[in-house]
Specification:
- With 189 residues, the protein is α+β, with helices and mostly antiparallel strands.
- It has a single domain, classed as 60s Ribosomal Protein L30, Chain: A, CATH 3.30.1330.
- It has 3 helices and 10 strands, in the order H-E-E-E-E-E-H-E-H-E-E-E-E.
- A hairpin with a 4-residue loop joins strand 4 and strand 5.
- The chain is globular and about 45 Å long.
């Protein structure tokens, strides 16, 4: 049995943190994209043949007014998904080869509407309508997630982040968990 040393992943890795309203696309095999999600969704989409991949991070499915335009459009899923797909195609991806992995959509606080479930349902519907298969997903639940995505290989690592019920900004990276908590790492291929 060979032991995998996680530090090997980060020696040459170029980390790109994708925050709410952002998307990032690359063909660089050394890039690992990271984000922290609560009720937000991150879609990781790639073309395995061309080696181009990217991640977005959005807060709400759409603006609710039917427009989805304006300065805050980047917060909305429809815009974020279209932006990511268009950037992938510009860098050489082929639409018929795209595959997606989606994460997030947690319900972090009791009593609020379940924005996370709406976000998850939106992402699944959008990708189905676009004909892009979801090859892996981890959505829902009550924990925030730290997600790492290697676009060149398609590998994703997710770590659940404990959230107490005190109001907090889950978009900020949580403190690194103690080594004893490493059993929460899940590699999704």
């Amino acid at each position: 049995m060979t032991h995998h040393n996680p530090s090997e992943d980060t020696e040459r890795a170029v980390k790109v943190h994708v925050t709410q309203g952002e998307s990032h696309v690359t063909t660089d095999p050394n890039v690992v994209m990271t984000t922290v999600l609560g009720s937000c969704i991150a879609a990781c989409i790639r073309d395995p043949q061309s080696g181009v991949g990217g991640m977005n991070h959005f807060l709400l499915p759409d603006s609710g007014d039917g427009r989805g335009t304006g300065g805050d459009a980047v917060r909305y899923g429809a815009y974020a998904m279209e932006l990511l797909i268009n950037e992938l195609l510009k860098k050489g991806a082929r639409r018929e080869r795209l595959e997606a992995k989606i994460f997030g959509g947690a319900k972090l606080f009791d009593g609020l509407s379940d924005v996370g479930a709406s976000n998850s349902a939106f992402a699944e519907r959008f990708l189905r309508d676009e004909g892009i298969p979801i090859v892996s997903s981890s959505t829902g639940g009550v924990s925030a997630r730290r997600v790492e995505f290697w676009p060149a290989s398609g590998r994703v690592r997710q770590r659940l982040v404990a959230v107490d019920n005190a109001p907090q900004d889950v978009r900020r990276p949580a403190p690194a968990p103690m080594p004893a908590a490493s059993s929460g790492d899940v590699d999704l291929f």
